[in-house]
Amino acid sequence: MVRSVREVFDESEAAGRLRVPVAAWRWATGSGLVPAADVGPGGWSRAVVEAADPEAVRAALRGIEAGVAADRLTEALGVPLPILRPRVTASAVGHLVKAGLLVYLGGDPQFPDVHPDQVAALCRRRDLPALLDRHVPLGPDQAAVRLGVRRTDFDQVVRLGWLAPIGSVDIDYKHHGGVTTVPLYDAQEIALLEVVRPSVDWRAVRTIRAGRRSPLAGLDPAAPGGDHVFLAAVARIARVGRAAVVTWRRRHPDFPDPVAGTDAHPQFDHRAVVAWLLAHDKIEVPVGPTIAALVLGEVGGATHRFRLDDPWLALADDAAGEDTLSGWSTDEDADTLAALVGGEFGASLRRLTAPGTGPLAVPGEVRVIERFRSGSGGLRLTLAWPAGLRGTAASGPAGGVVRHGIAYAGLGEGCVCARHDCGGVVPVSWCAEHGDAVGPVLEWHPGGGIRCTDLSAAVGQTVRSAVD
Predict the structure, then answer these.
(1) Which DSSP helix (H) or strand (E) runs through 364?
(2) How many CA atoms lie within 13 A of 411 on its CB side?
(3) Backbone phi, then psi, for 268, in 5-degree steps?
(4) N or C: less crowded end of the chain, CB within 10 Å?
(5) DSSP state, residue 397
């Protein structure tokens, strides 16, 4: 009797041939320690299996539970966790395995064991938030966190037909009602809501107080299959003019066809238009809130760093006004900041880095004017300072205010000082016009913003009066 020789091995047979755990073989193939399946899906040839080093395969295996991996991914999103970002759950790790981003090493497929080195590599990826949005669906409570609203406001979003479940999961609450079916929603669609529904005041929805009626409750849901938009609405979504959308429609044959309306005023399916805009890079998926970074200084010189999520910076138009900055904060940071600015003269803002403006600094009188708890539980702070003190922040992480000057006369060609759009200059010692050997300025002041402009106007008026 001739004994047959096995020529093709599946993962269990390959692990048995090497006398290593199946999980070790899975990691060896997933990490490239041994070649990928070379005889069809899930099949390895005898040559590949026998060429593998059993000791190396066995030594490479190190697994962690899904819950541990989820905690590490959550920490990678930021500490403290930014608003609009729910914690990563153990079930999310299962979805990342299905997406091929992590190797399944065993255990419950919904909550799998994975390799810590691969989790660490995923944590280092700058596109981690986008990967989570793309591959990990969210339950209603997580979806409300991702959108930054109360659960009742998210239920209104579903009622309006703006989101529909893409699946469901059964959760056994044991002694609290037994098995419950929970709908799952696409996280990328949730993240896109603020972009594709520009007519909604999302800031008002996110900051509504507990117990108040949702601003979305008064909106009527679209008729089944009738979520249609005109060209002007498409333009608002893409933040372009209507003419640009008309051009896209003419130049791109794959632009969605109208589903209603007239030739002069066609209507398009909202989801189809959004999908086209995404595919053609006309809109982007927001991956999280914008962040303002603050460095505040005490009277004694010590500095403290803070972060405000989803900041709203309002700069006054005249020096007699007041600038304000609001954003979401943690309770701990809010308490520290309130104590820091609670003195008679407030605190100095050494450096503020916020979207939409250059780095600012304020020499004193920064204070907290509002501490607001929203219905969704978030804490939002509002800081204020006299607009006349607003200045340009000095270079370097510690910041500090750059003091500008207004020159007596117009700047000549020989001036080598740093010039600013506000009209101020920062003299350097070797400048022939404004250096140490000459009277360089009419007045020193915190540089940047409206103060420089006011002084420039005053200087011009003074010169004209002298001439007259």
Answers:
(1) strand 360-373
(2) 19
(3) -125, 150
(4) N
(5) T
